[in-house]
Amino acid sequence: MPESSHRSDDAISRRALIAGAAAAAGGALLAGLPADAQQAPAAKSTTPVPPAIIPDDPTKAPGAPTSPLGSRSTFVRAVRAPTGEITGTSFTPLQNLRGTITPSDLHFERHHAGVPAIDPDKHTLVIHGLVDRPLEFSLADLERFPSVTRIHFVECSGNGRAAYRTPKPEMTPQMVDGMTSNSEWTGVPVSVLLREARVKPEGKWFLAEGADACRLARSIPINRGLDDALIVFAQNGEPLRPEQGYPMRLLLPGVEGNANVKWLRRIKVGTDPFMTRWETSKYTDPLPGGKSRMFSFEMDAKSIITSPAYPEKLSGPGWRAITGLAWSGRGRITRVDISTDGGRTWADAEIAGTVLSRAHTRFQRMWNWDGNETLIMSRATDDSGYVQPTMTQLKHARGPGTDYHFNSIRAWRVRRDGTVTFEAAT
């Protein structure tokens, strides 16, 4: 190693060492937990501590100087909740977010072999198989094409598993549904690259393969690639972050997260699904009657109230806003209903802002709480006419063995003392 590499700033080195030790310690602690405990993050996370000296009157003291990178106020405590594993997850703090866009550093993570460190100058995307012109693209090559920018959500197909299998009153929105995030994505349409490669008529599917250690690979119908799929290289106005697929990833709007292959390195066109281990041992849903559901790409319509929710405590009776997020992999959210009496009656929520296809939609409704114990719930409907089901309806359709696409109605119990806890609505 060159001598100069040892001359990095001591303060930075100490911070990196401490951060690395903390991450390692967290992983070691979680490794000893039962599997169910590892599926949901802890309710509390280590958060920054405000600086020791805060002026009583900020107009009487000069502020901080300019800096290379902006940062949140030390009073803002939003953090992801990681399981601390190489094959693991970190959950987006839905209850701390406003609007619909998820900050890039709070976007959820799901990895099967950790986050690879990739030199963009050495990484390429190869398109081959049933094409007339096999092609290879560097990041610089992709950036020369005309790009498009769209807002879409990404959701892990296992999002909501812990709340479905082992619901607990102390679950936050982050713990219930924190494996969905919504971003502005920039990249090149897959259709442009497939046309460049000249897909042969018999090419009906393509294999998308990542450059991580497990080389995650999924089979995608060619029609989806020719529709609105993107090869993405930027998120929320900046290059992709490593945990989101830097230097490039596949984005399939509305499709289960694992098919949105990160660190994309290869697209191979073929006649049929490639039946990878990710499509046989995983991401296949058992159904009643001994059947299984494969290639269940679309994420169904879903919603969750993010406030009031655990660990909030209402200060007393009176007016307050019920707010949350709704989304659908099939298109636009057309309606969100709110119930404040355990599902006996429902009322329309207000849709805030512009409703986009296959993107998070913010909803809200003013509620005059009378101080009595009750159950509040939300129910989404999309433009295909699909209505978010109850837990009973979901179990009837999918059977007790279902392991993905948990989109049943979520509920929050508000008690007389103002405490709010999670409850699996039946």
Characterize the structure shown.
The structure is a single chain. The chain has 426 residues and is an alpha+beta fold. Among the domains are: 124-293, Alpha-Beta Complex (Sulfite Oxidase, Chain A, domain 2); 302-424, Immunoglobulin-like, CATH 2.60.40. 15% of the residues lie in helices and 30% in strands. The protein has 8 helices and 24 strands. The protein has helices spanning 10-31, 35-39, 139-144, 161-165, 173-177, 190-197, 222-227, 391-398, and strands spanning 81-82, 88-91, 109-111, 124-129, 135-138, 148-155, 180-189, 205-210, 217-221, 230-235, 238-239, 249-251, 264-270, 285-287, 291-293, 302-307, 318-327, 333-339, 347-348, 350-352, 361-369, 374-382, 410-414, 420-424. The strands form 6 sheets. The chain has a 5-stranded mixed beta sheet with strand order 5-4-13-8-9. Strands 6, 7, 10, 11 and 12 form a 5-stranded antiparallel beta sheet that branches. A hairpin with a 6-residue loop joins β8 and β9 (217-221). The model is unreliable at 1-46 (pLDDT under 50).
